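In the design runs reported in the main text, the only information available to the sequence generator was the tokenized backbone. The following block is the verbatim input for one such run; it is reproduced so that readers can re-run the procedure and compare outputs position by position.
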């Protein structure tokens, strides 16, 4: 759990508390399993609860209090409380009591999800980032953010899906430069798609 700026997509630059849940249904998180995972390009360590601000919270209220304290430490009494639930796959854990407890403390709630689980009611900003070999059930939301390129998931797959915004995010890794050039070219030919850069990595913030 850490304060930073949203680095990607529609809300790039927005002050946020990131709440990274442990565990994912598309990869164990262990390097030795990566090659046989459904999602092989993950850039994130989501194993365990020993990261900054990490803990196991006994109740939704306890987690929501910790988020409010983080916001206060970073931004004092300011308006605009914003939390991004991510992971790992946050929809394995985020549930209506947590959403209610976090809303009760004045937060807007965003989620970053792989789309394999339906989002509960009440989340204010739903970002779905589809992965191969997975059944996507969350086919509507605010932002579809496709890591690009993925051979089995061309952007046209999502033409009829009910999202307000469509973003291409170059796949980080050894081919990041080539992937970025390919994403730029795709966006220029297909103006419905915009380029999402992982700006936090460019400037070295979490
Ligand atoms: C680590 S995931 C966690 C949330 C959720 N499990 C998901 O996949 O959307 C957060 C975001 O990072 C993106 N991401 C993961 N690995 C990436 C990579 N190598 N390059 C670019 N984006 C990546 C994901 O697609 C997702 O949009
Ligand atoms: N600054 C920052 N922005 C992000 N947007 C999505 C992220 C994620 O890992 O879910 C992420 C992240 O890890 N850091
Ligand atoms: S679905 Fe998300 S958290 Fe899970 S392995 Fe893929 S990018 Fe990482
Ligand atoms: Mg990240």
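Verbatim output:
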């Amino acid at each position: 759990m850490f304060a930073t700026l949203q680095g990607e997509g529609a809300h790039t630059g927005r002050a946020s508390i990131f709440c990274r849940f442990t565990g994912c249904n598309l990869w164990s998180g262990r390097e030795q399993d990566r090659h046989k995972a459904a999602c092989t390009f993950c850039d994130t360590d989501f194993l365990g609860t020993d990261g900054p601000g990490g803990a196991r919270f006994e109740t939704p209220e306890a987690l929501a209090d910790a988020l409010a304290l983080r916001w206060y430490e970073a931004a004092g009494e300011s308006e605009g409380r914003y939390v991004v639930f991510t992971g790992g796959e946050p929809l394995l854990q985020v549930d209506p009591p947590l959403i209610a407890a976090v809303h009760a403390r004045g937060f807007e709630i965003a989620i970053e999800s792989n789309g394999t689980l339906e989002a509960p009611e009440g989340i204010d900003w739903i970002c779905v980032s589809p992965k191969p070999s997975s059944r996507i059930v969350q086919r509507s939301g605010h932002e579809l953010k496709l890591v690009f390129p993925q051979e089995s998931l061309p952007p046209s797959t999502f033409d009829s899906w009910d999202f307000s915004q469509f973003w291409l995010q170059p796949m980080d890794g050894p081919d990041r430069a080539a992937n970025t050039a390919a994403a730029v070219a795709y966006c220029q030919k297909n103006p419905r798609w915009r380029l999402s850069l992982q700006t936090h990595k460019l400037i070295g913030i979490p």
